[in-house]
Amino acid sequence: MTGGWKIGFIGAGKMGGAVARRLATRGHQVRVYDPSREATRACTVAGAGACDSAAEAASEADAVFTSLPLPEHVVDTYRSLVSVLEPGIVCVDVSTIDPIVARGISDLLAEREIPFVACPLGKTPEHAERGEIPVFVGGPRETVAFVHPLLEEFAESVHDLGTVEAATTFKLISNLVGMTNVAVLAEGYVLARRA
Fold first, then answer.
1. Angle between helix 37-45 and helix 14-24 axes, rounded to 10 deg
2. Cα–Cα nearest to 77, from 9, 145, 177
3. Which helix (H) or strand (E) holds 91?
4. Helix-strand-coil percent breakdown of the chain, rounded to 5?
5. C-alpha–C-alpha distance, residues 1 and 56, integer Å
6. Spatial distance between the Cα atoms of 174 and 181, rounded to a whole number of angstroms
7. pLDDT (tens digit, 0 to 9) for every residue of the chain, 195 residues total?
């Protein structure tokens, strides 16, 4: 894709907003929708356009990104968009969802010949703002290859895990390991203080 992408970005919370702002400062035309005006405003300061609905953000886009809090939000968003998305558009979800939800969305969009890429993110919003996050990608091979240069705009490393199920499962395992380590460190700290 030359001359920058037209990106519809739905969900501009801490992590999604960081990615949207990063893309907006890299020569892409980013249009953002989030129910929070403050979240949207933070993206417009970085050069993104504000939209009043998810459908408006997705209209005329080359790629639609979603970054939403819960799996049901992701499902509801794509169910509402599937009838208005143009064939050829690429949908990329950077939320943390489970493999069953990822497969359901992929199959739903495939009915309209719209490719879906699961792209969970690693690290923190601060890392995302600087383009220093790993991403774990799964989806149709040709689509992943097509969006790979765009993903490199906000990621320091892109790990192609093959399927949407593999990418989303890896993120859940990563979260499990990370949070377990935090719990163990917290217990160790309390024991050390008491000792």
1. 30
2. 9
3. strand 90-93
4. 50, 20, 30
5. 22
6. 11
7. 556 999 999 999 999 999 999 999 999 999 999 999 999 999 999 999 999 999 999 999 999 999 999 999 999 999 999 999 988 899 999 999 999 999 999 999 999 999 999 999 999 999 999 999 999 999 999 999 999 999 999 999 999 999 999 999 999 999 899 889 999 999 999 999 999
Q: What CA–CA distances, in Å, run from 69 to 77, 95, 141?
A: 12, 7, 27
Query: Strand 63-66 to strand 49-50: parallel, antiparallel, or no bridges (unpaired)?
Result: unpaired
Can you give the pTM of this predicted structure?
A: 0.93
3-state secondary structure (DSSP) of residue 106: helix
Q: How far apart are CA 167 and CA 124, in angstroms?
A: 18
d(CA 22, CA 7): 12
